[in-house]
Amino acid sequence: MLTAAAAVVPSTAPAGAATGTPPQVYGAWHCGNDACTWATVRDMTDFDHANHWLIDRGDGRPSVNLVVLSFVNPLTLLNGTTNSGNADGVPVGMNQGVVNYFTSHGIRVMLSIGGITYTDDWNTALAQNPTLLGQRAAALASRLGVGIEIDYEQSSGPNTAGLQAFIDAYRAAHPYDASGADPTARLTIDVAAGDRWLIDLDQYASAHWLTTSGPVLDYANAMVPSKQPTAAGAESNWQEHLTGKANYSPAIPPLAPAKFTGSLYIAEGSQVRPECTDFPSSVTNGTSAWTQSAAPAGAGTSPGLLGYMFWAAERPATRGVTTVPPNSCEGGVGAGATSFNIPIPMPALRQS
């Protein structure tokens, strides 16, 4: 159990806190203790020791308002596979006990389908039966009371027709819900840090699924780049989504600030990032003024990105740092939640 002394609250608010639009989404991808496979059922006492910082920033309040359990293999889900690590197509560690651990503290939970390791399996599943895959994702969401994130990292020639069929099937079961009241209706997608990777997927998603006039997906996450960016580098990446790429063929249209989050590392390689331990010196704090005031550049009407996502809680890789004590993140993510006054539970999200 962590104590209040573990919390580090900055003495000054981030530069943009007085103006602009504060973050509404403030979440962490979660990889479990086995590098994102979730292949074992967790002892919940051990789970709490490793992850207590997520539900308690040191003063009893959660550090985040969203946790995304990563990853479900799309082909395993389609086939309903049961083996040593999966039950009916779902990692055995992604169970109701883990979901309830977070939701009982007002934290929204989603499951991420995919990840770069499962790109080929996404391609196979979408080629075989994307409608059934969408139906099984919707049934999984209903069973656990969670939302679903699409993490399909096919860099060239993605099967957008198959993904459209997957989304149509999911939305037939769980229609878009602007109020956010139904957790199973939350359906999101991951795109690259900027517009220069996952280009075809980014173009299609921005044009067809992420518009403010007829939204199909709730929002996108601009994923982390290959290494932690500087504040200026992060802002440059995120600006590409706001501006779009008119010179591409087909063009990538602008994305409304209210339709995506920016992402940063909390655990990367062998380094404990300030994102985890030292909010005042973090890239999160360094980008906060820009993130809250970023103006629409052709789409949307309100300024400010939707919020931040952090990669990744507990053990994102077989080697390297974790967010397990003594590296838990009350002083970074948790202190940021205090500084930004993050709403918990997550409110209805801006729509334009």
Task: Provide a descriptive summary of the structure in words.
- This protein has helices at 44-55, 74-79, 96-103, 119-128, 130-144, 160-173, 199-208, 231-243, 274-277, 283-293, 330-340, and strands at residues 25-30, 66-72, 86-87, 90-91, 108-114, 147-151, 187-191, 220-222, 260-265, 267-268, 271-272, 307-313.
- It is an alpha/beta fold and 352 residues long.
- It has an eight-stranded parallel barrel with strand order 1-2-5-6-7-8-9-12, surrounded by six helices. It has a two-stranded antiparallel ribbon with strand order 3-4. Strands 10-11 form a two-stranded antiparallel sheet.
- Helix 8 runs parallel beside helix 10 (283-293).
- The model is unreliable at 1-18 (pLDDT under 50).
Q: What is the domain tally?
A: 1
Q: In the CATH classification, which architecture applies?
A: Alpha-Beta Barrel
CATH topology type? TIM Barrel
Give the overall shape.
globular
Order of helices and strands: EHEHEEHEHHEHEHEHEEEHHEH
The N- to C-terminal Cα distance equals: 41 Å
Topology, number of strands: 12
Specify the structural class.
alpha/beta
Mean pLDDT: 93
Q: What's the total helix number?
A: 11
What level of helicity do the residues show?
Answer: 25-40%
Point out poorly predicted stretches. Answer: 1-18
CATH superfamily placement: Glycosidases
- Report strand %: 15-25%
Strand order of the largest sheet: 1-2-5-6-7-8-9-12
Sheet having the most strands: 8 strands, parallel, barrel
InterPro entries: GH
Signal peptide: 1-17
Protein name: GH18 domain-containing protein
Keywords: Signal
